[in-house]
Write a structure and sequence with these properties.
Shape: elongated
Oligomer: single chain
CATH superfamily of the domain at 85-174: Tetratricopeptide repeat domain
CATH class of the domain at 85-174: Mainly Alpha
Radius of gyration: 25 Å
CATH architecture of the domain at 85-174: Alpha Horseshoe
Number of helices: 12
Structural class: alpha+beta
Helix content: 55-70%
Largest sheet: 4 strands, antiparallel
Order of helices and strands: HHHHHHHHHHEHEEHE
Length: 263
Amino acid sequence: MIRLQFGIIILFFGFGIGYAQSVQDVAALIRAGEMETARNHIQLWGPTKDLSDSRLFLKALSNPDADSAFNEYQLLIDKYPQSSHADDALFRMAQYKYARGLYKSAKDLYKQTLQKNPQSQLVQKSLYGTALCFQATDQADSANHYFRKCISENPGSSIAKLAQNDFEDQAEERAGQNQPVSPQSNRIEYAVQVGAFSHQTKALMRKAYYEREGFQVKLHQKSKDGTLYYLVWLGSFDTPEEARTFGAQLQKRYGVRYFLVSE
């Protein structure tokens, strides 16, 4: 009797696992936030290279390793270029690159989303993402172009509101640039300014990006016309000539606008 009961338990447990293996069941688990359970079922689907596009997309979506998920999204696009999941995969790959500070790669992926499926529901988010990539590399005119497209193509949406705020911040940034701080000691140090933001969070993002690139970065504050700006300075030089040389190299490498500043 004990053996029989144990066998029945195994039978029902095995049935539960088998039932939840369908794409719809695993997608429901992911929507409910049951990622670990979803991953357990996905493991039963077999090798990654043999998965259908829908199963491959769910595997990447539930993957806790961002690098591995990126490769799975890439495999989906390569193997199933016409898949209904392809634009979503491209968009998520772009988000990954942006989060890593790889703005050029992110911009290229956002643009692929726009070009390959202009009817996608992700178009507006991709326009906004493209604008942020241009903004992060100080290409203000290009950033504003995409902010305006994002606003005009779906006015009133939450993404359009974000784009509008960023578009206005671009104007504030320009107004706050090229405002050198007065020297506080006999020795003058020179640097190059690569951003001025009215929101500290954006200044910290810019600072983190250049720190990852290996540069010495400082944040300064300056009030102008009643608005507090957070200034992002790179380098420390004894002469303005050295700072200008550094700024020119920076502009050539990153396409960033810079201003000579001192303290």
